[in-house]
Amino acid sequence: MKNKENKANHDKGKIFVKIMAGILALLMVAGTGITLVYALMA
After folding, report:
1. I need a labelling partner for 22 at 20 to 30 A (CA). Which of 11, 28, 30, 40 fits?
2. What is the model's pTM?
3. What is the pLDDT of residues 18-41, one digit of tens each?
């Protein structure tokens, strides 16, 4: 029973890490795009 709970927590952790990595990647891409737009307009 304890092993099942541990696995569920581990799965939740993996999903959380993937979501956070996705958000960070999105922010990096958005930042790069905004920087390029700003540089080309100036």
Report:
1. 40
2. 0.67
3. 999 999 999 999 999 999 999 999
